[in-house]
Amino acid sequence: MALAHLLAALTVPDASPVYAVGSTVVDLTPTPLKEWAIRQFGTADKAVLLGSVVVVVLLLAALAGVVARRRPALGVGALVVLAGLATTAAVTRPGAGALDLVPGVAAAVSGAGVLLWLVRWEARTAPATDPGPIDDSAIERSAADQSAGPSRRGVLLASAGLTAVAAGLATTGEWMLRRARQIADVVLPRAADPAGPFPTGLEETVPGVTPLRTPSGEFYRIDTRLMLPRVDVDSWSLTIDGDVAREVSFTFDELTAMPLTERDITLTCVSNEVGGQYVGSARWLGVPLRDLLERAGIEDTGADQILSTDVDGMTLSTPLTVALDGRDSMIALGMNGSALPLQHGFPARMVVPGLYGFVSACKWITRMTLTTYDAEQAYWTEREWATDAPIRVASRIDTPKALSRQEAGELVIGGIAWAQRVGIERVEVRIDGQAWREAVMGPDVNDDHWRQWYLPWRAEPGTHYLACRAIAKDGTVQEAVRRTPFPSGSSGIQEIAVTVT
User: Fold this and answer.
1) Parent domain of 252
2) Which chain regions cross the lipid bilayer (predicted)?
């Protein structure tokens, strides 16, 4: 595995056996199990999956080693089959080529060779099962043979040495991958249509409330990729094809030379549970989506879907109407004043206010194909998620934390609320099932951005239950009916318990 990981770093990173198997597991996992994993592990779900793959492979390899002591051919065959499964996972990925074979084949050859070498060396140290009549000359010959051959200690040292070599190979491979994923400093031009001054948030006066803008390093990341792609910005391009008047392509430099728009927009993941953390707000800089589509000619298109494809073949579908209805849909190149971080889609990603990310936020985008939902299905559509998923009105309590212990006295209940495309009018708080009380609202950045809120609370000793709900500017009240994220986003009122002492 270690040698294969190093070779993958030199050839095709996604062909590393652990990543290839992990990606296949992601694709084959039923939706309910995926949702469970996200609920249990959050953004650590990828690390848990990769760790599980490594542990299972090590256990199976150990079993092959035990079998090989008595039946070497069977043990070696088991290792080859194990490596073959990883190779199959690598070569069946979208866009796989001949180089995807290299890491898996290397794993099979090196694993089988090392196992045979260890088995034969260990066999030379084993005592004979039937020593027969013992005489002095036999004892002398046996002692001479054992002094000439390897000892069991030598076998253990050899195994430890191989383990150290493997660790070195794996570490080197991972170091190379991390260096390859580093992006060069990219300086973006100023926006032709800037967002304007950003207000001061409540976080400076209400401790515990989520900041009005999410730092890029703290922005949530939910996607199917176990390894971030390596994208050469100099050779990257964005192509628009399908049911358009003409196919067009744009290099990164051509996109940055176009008039750029800057907007403060909140994004939400469809996997976000009631009161969840998979929501973030940032200042995005990019080219309006409509401007790009118009260059391809869409006047006579019969398409109703933008099928977006990333650099490794992942597909997302977006209703074409959202690019044309006046909202600030864009192909974003920048985030919070800098180029996009690699984990958030460098060199370009789609940003569409008001829709959950699984139908609007293709990262590492390289192609947009105008087509119909009847003709083409994207990754999540094939898994029966909704095709059009507007974000629901929602709110969250940030402080005090659920199940926390607080001292009696003057406290503050605070959090955030969002209703992209409509905006938040007010937030109400309920304490111990009593009447709803209106909270104090923070600054209103725009209708596509969340709002902070807080309510002063004189807390008496005891266990208290706190709930919040948001009311949008069009009068829509946050739904009380509980829904799971599948297939079009969760709903319900968050209620937490707090103990006051």
Assistant:
1) 228-382
2) 47-67, 74-92, 98-119, 155-177
Q: Which residues pair with 483 in a beta bridge?
A: 491
Instruction: Tell whether 151 and 258 lie within a shared domain.
Output: no
The pTM for the full model equals 0.83
Q: Is residue 110 part of a domain?
A: yes
CATH code of the domain containing 356: 3.90.420.10
Q: Residue 45 — very low, low, confident or very high, per pLDDT cuts 50/70/90?
A: confident
H-helix or E-strand spanning residue 176: helix 152-181
Q: What is the pLDDT of residues 150-163, one digit of tens each?
A: 677 877 888 889 89
Torsion of CA 89, 91, 93, 96, to 10 degrees: 160
Q: What angle do CA 56, 59, 63 make, to 5 degrees?
A: 140
Q: What amino acid is encoded at 6 in this protein? A: L
Number of domains in the chain: 2
| 452, containing H or E segment | strand 451-459
Give the Cα separation of 314 and 350 in Å (integer).
13
Q: What are phi and psi of 451, to 5 degrees?
A: -120, 140
Q: CA 332, CA 350: separation in Å to the nearest integer?
A: 6
State the DSSP code for 435.
Answer: -
Residue 501 · residue 405 · CB < 8 Å = yes
String of DSSP letters for 209-243: SPPSS--GGGS----S-SSPPP--TTT-EEEEEES
Report the distance separating Cα 398 and Cα 412, nearest Å.
10
Q: How far apart are CA 330 and CA 179, in angstroms?
A: 29
Instruction: Report yes or no on 87 lying in a domain.
Output: yes
